[in-house]
Amino acid sequence: MQIRIEPLADESPVVLPDQLGFGRVPTRRILTCRYEAGRGWADAEIGPRQHFVLDPAAQIFHCGQGIFEGTKAYLRPDGRINLFRPDANAARFNRSAERMAMPNFPEADFVTAIETLVALEHAWTPRTDAASLYIRPVMIAAEPTLEVRSSREYIFYIVLTPTGPFFAGGFEPVAVRVEEHHVRAAPGGTGEAKTIGNYAASLYATEAARVAGYQQVLWLDAVERRFVEEAGAMNVAFVYGGKEIVTPALSGSILPGITRDSLLRLAPDLGYAVREARLDIDEVIADIESGRITEVFCMGTAAVVAPIGRIGRHGRDVIVADGRSGPVATRLHRTLTDIQYGRA
Ligand SMILES: *Cc1c(COP(=O)(O)O)cnc(C)c1O
Q: Taking 80 as the threshold, does the pLDDT of residue 219 lie above it?
């Protein structure tokens, strides 16, 4: 892939704000690439980040035909920059594209696009501990038509944003509420694809959980409302007896996380058994109460591992062990971030 590189008007030194938050600070450049049916992908370009000009009828606005990815660049102790498994994001991006009837984006080009943009914008990679440069590749349907069908025009783009440490105040457990009425994803639906509409569909229940004093929703399966699927926009795992890590088996309505996959591969090297299973919420709650489950945690690119300390269900809370972050989540978090930051 040939990427045209346009000069920037602003070449002044990069100064990062003290408070980065998540996704609020844009870098100066954007990578864009355009697709038209019959011609394929063309016009790959990195230039100054600017607004898109889209017709109000562009299909992204009416059909929601859009997919995205999320990965990060990490500053290593030697001053160079690490990416973590961007090939896995490339492969998942194309599985999402297929599900949403969108064109394939060549996987090698996807990785080259990230590498080229990050190399140009490396000064935006935060130097502070546990911070990183978040990478957001997106594909949207751009053809102006109100017809309900797959678009013939697309824009692929990548934007970057320096992000602060997910756990600013230490490795603090989160509280989740089991969602009884709404579902995130159904079998045969789009839950396995990283499509923008999945997030829109999750907002109502998430906001309601926040008002009730929880940070996230614990999603159950759509058919029986019984089996645990995900926690917020992250995968979830349960530790039995401090030794065995059990996570919901990919059911067709669970997003196959790259963090989940990485931790499942890493955990046996650290002496933990791993198992993918159907996890009944009644049994999970009983096992937390009896102490068989010693830890619960979420897995995803943003936090890597986030311990869950409290689970609300039917108006009642159960506390996981002593409600604090446990040794397995702590060790997994440290081991995987050591790899991501090039310390191991
Ligand atoms: C992106 C995402 C995840 C986590 O995937 P990672 O590749 O680990 O970041 C989990 N669940 C949902 C719904 C997601 O969108």
A: yes
- Residue 32 C-alpha to ligand 1 middle, in angstroms? 23
Tens digits of per-residue pLDDT, 172-207? 899 999 999 999 999 999 999 999 999 999 999 999
Rounded to whole angstroms, how far apart are CA atoms 138 and 158? 6
Angle at 186 between CA 184 and CA 191, to 5 degrees: 60
Contact call for residues 237 and 259 (beta carbons, < 8 A): no
- 8 A C-beta contact, residue 293 and residue 246: no
pLDDT tens string 11-64: 899 999 988 888 899 999 999 999 999 999 999 999 999 999 999 999 999 999
**What is the pLDDT, as a whole number, of residue 22?**
86
User: Ligand 1 centre and the CA of 314: distance in Å?
Assistant: 27
Which residue has the CA at smallest separation from atom 10 of ligand 1? 234
**Which residues lie with the beta carbon below 6 Å from any ligand 1 atom?**
70, 194, 230, 233-235, 255, 257-260, 300-301
Q: Which segments within the chain are labelled E, that is strand?
A: 4-5, 29-36, 40-48, 66-68, 71-75, 81-83, 132-141, 153-163, 174-178, 216-220, 228-231, 235-240, 244-248, 273-277, 293-300, 304-313, 316-319
DSSP state of 268: G
Q: Give the separation between CA 336 and CA 100, rounded to whole angstroms.
A: 31
Site to substitute for ligand 1 among 84, 166, 216, 255, most atoms within 8 A of C-beta:
255
For residues 63 and 59, give the distance between their C-alpha atoms in angstroms, rounded to a whole number. Answer: 5
